[in-house]
Amino acid sequence: MQVFPAALQNLSDHFARLPGVGGKTAQRLAFHVLSLPLEEAEDFAEAILKAKREVHTCPKCQNLTDRALCPICDDDSRDDSVICVVAEPKDVIAMERSREFRGTYHVLHGVISPLNHVTQDNLKIKELLSRVAEGNVREVIMATNPDTEGEATAMYISRLLRPLEVKVTRLAYGVPVGSQLEYADEVTLSRALEGRQEM
């Protein structure tokens, strides 16, 4: 027996396909959209369509943009001899929040993950190699997550970059600011010791 109208069920099913959205959350979102005034619902639908039509990848760094080049690649004050490689566009936002990095980025759009059927061919690695091969890059910073897939991706890319004679570095790991040593795991403490700096 069908409890909900087909259109409402279809909307809920579409929300459920979004990452991190379960069945109950999808249902709540569908009911919320249905409760919106028609004009707001149309604005919401148009915002999705407009984003799909206008947002594309930057031809240089593969970040998302609605311009010819993303604002970072288009900024002459950025040091384009240093490239920070990240897995996703949201990682660029996280790095920019620090206000410390003044180089440019390269977004891979994922990490190598055999379990999820993501291979190196699914990522924007060739585009990175092309940028570095142009010759004006002196350092590539690998800033993928410190998990199995992030580490494997960083190692794979660093091997590909080796013949191009560019300095490849990895973000330092360690004990997070504000935490206590007794709660840090062995791997974190080991990485913190390896990455220690002179004071």
Give the topology:
Elements (H helix, E strand, L loop, with lengths): L5 H11 L6 H13 L2 H17 L1 E2 L6 E2 L13 E8 L2 H9 L5 E5 L17 H9 L5 E4 L5 H14 L5 E4 L15 H9 L5
Parallel strand pairs: 3-4, 3-5, 5-6
Antiparallel strand pairs: 1-2
Helix pairs in contact: 1-2
Task: Characterise this structure.
The chain is of the alpha/beta class. 41% of the residues lie in helices and 13% in strands. The protein contains seven helices and six strands, in the order H-H-H-E-E-E-H-E-H-E-H-E-H. It has helices spanning 6-16, 23-35, 38-54, 89-97, 125-133, 148-161, 186-194; strands at residues 56-57, 64-65, 79-86, 103-107, 139-142, 167-170. The strands form two sheets. The chain has a four-stranded parallel β-sheet. The chain has a two-stranded antiparallel ribbon with strand order 1-2. Strand 3, helix 4 (89-97) and strand 4 form a beta-alpha-beta unit. The N and C termini lie far apart (70 Å).
How would you concisely characterize the structure shown here?
This protein has 199 residues and is of the alpha/beta class. Helices cover 41% and strands 13% of the residues. The strands form two sheets. Strands 4-3-5-6 form a four-stranded parallel β-sheet. The chain has a two-stranded antiparallel sheet with strand order 1-2.
Shape: globular
Strand order of the largest sheet: 4-3-5-6
H/I helix tally: 7
Question: What percent of residues are in strands?
Answer: 5-15%
Main attributes of the structure:
single chain; 199 residues; alpha/beta; four-stranded parallel β-sheet; two-stranded antiparallel ribbon; 7 helices; 6 strands; 13% strand; globular
